[in-house]
């Protein structure tokens, strides 16, 4: 588990406990799509597979497999998140990571989120 005094993986400048960990323990703390996006990135960084799985929108969650998420989270080293543009329900971002052969990779995605009740969910990305 990550040290709680470390700065949050999402790059907010806050500590992990002041930032994405709050969302990891209570999804309702993500009041915007961007906050959920940041928490999902941090979940990759700290290996919180249940959070990643549970924050898929119910319509896309059934296509997800926890073991595949876990493999993707663990075989890469998550270096940095850049939010390029966030709207009410979309977030365009770049995730910088080292792959299993220690090559720098940049994952550029525009993600779509949906709010259901008072919770935000990740729908999909392209
Ligand atoms: Zn954070």
Tag the structure with descriptive keywords.
126 residues, alpha+beta, 5 helices, 4 strands, binds zinc ion
Any overview of this molecule?
It is built from 5 helices and 4 strands. With about 130 residues, the chain is of the alpha+beta class. The protein has a single domain (about 20-125), classed as Nuclear Transport Factor 2, Chain: A (Roll). A 4-stranded antiparallel beta sheet has the order 1-2-3-4. It is globular. About 30% of the residues are buried. Bound molecules: zinc ion. Zinc ion binds near residues 8, 12, 38 and 42. Zinc ion binds next to helix 2.
> What gyration radius follows from the Cα positions, in whole Å?
13 Å
End-to-end Cα distance, whole Å, is 30 Å
Strand order of the largest sheet: 1-2-3-4
CATH class: Alpha Beta
Please write the string of helix (H) and strand (E) elements.
HHHHHEEEE
**Percentage beta strand:** 25-35%
What class, by secondary structure content? alpha+beta
Q: What is the molecular shape?
A: globular
Instruction: Report the sheet with the most strands, covering strand number, pairing sense and barrel closure.
Output: 4 strands, antiparallel
Task: Briefly note the CATH topology name.
Answer: Nuclear Transport Factor 2, Chain: A
Number of strands: 4
Estimate the mean pLDDT confidence.
95
Number of helices: 5
Unreliable runs: none
């Amino acid at each position: 588990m990550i040290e709680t005094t470390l700065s949050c993986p999402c790059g907010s400048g806050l500590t992990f406990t002041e930032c994405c960990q709050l969302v990891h323990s209570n999804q309702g703390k993500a009041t915007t799509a961007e906050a959920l996006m940041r928490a999902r990135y941090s979940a990759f960084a700290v290996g919180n597979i249940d959070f990643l799985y549970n924050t898929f929108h119910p319509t896309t969650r059934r296509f997800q497999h926890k073991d595949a998420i876990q493999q993707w989270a663990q075989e890469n080293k998550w270096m940095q998140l850049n939010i390029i543009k966030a709207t009410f329900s979309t977030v365009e971002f770049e995730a910088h990571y080292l792959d299993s052969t220690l090559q720098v990779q940049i994952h550029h995605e525009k993600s779509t989120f949906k709010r259901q009740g008072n919770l935000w969910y990740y729908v999909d990305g392209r």
